Amino acid sequence: MPDPRAPVVTDQPHATAPLSPRRRQLLEAAQHVIADEGLKGLTHRAVDRRAGLPEGSCSAYWRTRQALQAALASYVSDALLTDVDELAARMQAASPDEATTVGAAVDLFLQWLDQRELLIARLELTLAASRDADLRALLVDHRARLVTIVDQIMCAAGKEQGGLSAEALVASYDGVLLAALLRPPADRRSFLEQSMALLGESLSSAPVA
């Protein structure tokens, strides 16, 4: 049985709460469950086992599977957004050239690829969102924020192409990350550098919207 002293439970998919160490532990465990078993394996019991916590720990925070999925989607998306936001801040402060921008993006992508569970959880949740309106709304909001940040990076690099170009670039990056995830780790940097350079060239030659 859940500990009666546990925090108040919410079944609302979009409810937010301070990310306590226990919540973080459970969400990290949920990422590993998805990476190993797919989204179908994401259950409260599986998360508890992976976290090494008593049964009922996960459901004390997120009673329904939908609430758990929404919490994990926010956790994963916020982690990615934080990294991209930090990259944007560095780019805006340094006024870098295109090569520096590409290099920084490649380094960030390699960092994400080393966090296999993070990327797989994001991919699985994105697919699930195509069948879940609430989850889709949450991820669409996070994606809009990501597009805005990427647009800022483009502007800092002197590539003011408009929001549509930033959105297309984010979609392209998704594909590049997925392809890189399937490659041997030793080949990833070269693949990312070449792919990012090609995307940059395509953007430079594209007409301004």
Automatic annotation (TrEMBL):
The keyword DNA-binding applies. The lineage of its organism: Bacteria, Bacillati, Actinomycetota, Actinomycetes, Propionibacteriales. Pfam families: TetR_C_31. One of its GO terms (molecular function) is DNA binding. It comes from Nocardioides agri. Residues 20-80 form the HTH tetR-type domain. It comes from the Bacteria. Keywords: DNA-binding. Coiled coil: none annotated. This is TetR family transcriptional regulator. Residues 43-62 bind DNA.
